[in-house]
Amino acid sequence: MELASVVRSSVVRSSVVRQAPAAVAAARSLEVAGQLRAAIMEGDDTRIARLLSDLLRVRGLTKGQRVRLQSRALLNLVHSLRSVALNDELTGLLNRRGFMQTATRLLDLALRDRQVAHLVYFRLAIGAAAAAHGEEACARNVLLRRMGNFLRDSFPSYGVYEVLGRLSGGEFAALTPRAEHAMRSALMLRARTPERGCDAPELPLQVAVVHFEPAAPAAIDELLHNAADQLSQEVTPALETRPPVTEVASVGSAPRSGLTLA
Fold it and tell me: For residue 204, what is the domain's CATH number?
């Protein structure tokens, strides 16, 4: 009995000894993590770097493991910053910079493959619609989010074959190789129809369509300029009640499928 008691006591002491460093490391890890959060809130870059290194060291990683983990974290941060730089936070679409970059790549592919592409330019009357509903800032944000959803529904191949962007306050654009997605009359009709299960009013939109022809290629900024000029020359108000007019520019031949962004 005495021998068994001694063995059990030895095992307990050994377990306590093994667990003590782990408990200390866990407590230290929590302490450093708290300091790291405070440094991040204060924007102290030097302290952030030191505490991050301390945190990784406390968790028992080797120097090589710490370097790899820090490199991976840095790469993730670069990707996050790039996403913030190229996307519009409110609508989830590309911002002007992201749209211009991605649309240029799609036009390069269209030129290489001798395919027609279609630029659809939208002008959303934000101020008038927001003022009509009161609480202007809130109504404006709701309207912009609706516009983002409207574009995603109208161009279901975005991100693969199509590019969507918010270029400025109420200026939006879509670039697509699909002629059926660039029909102005269909887009105007869709804008008049509230979203499914929603009592929201029609979107106050003006729409122009211009086309990229491989035989006479134009840059994306030139296409946007031409589309904006087309709208400025129109005398009919947005969302006219009479039957929609024909597209601003003649629709080119339907492109072959398979144009993807590299």
Answer: 3.30.70.270
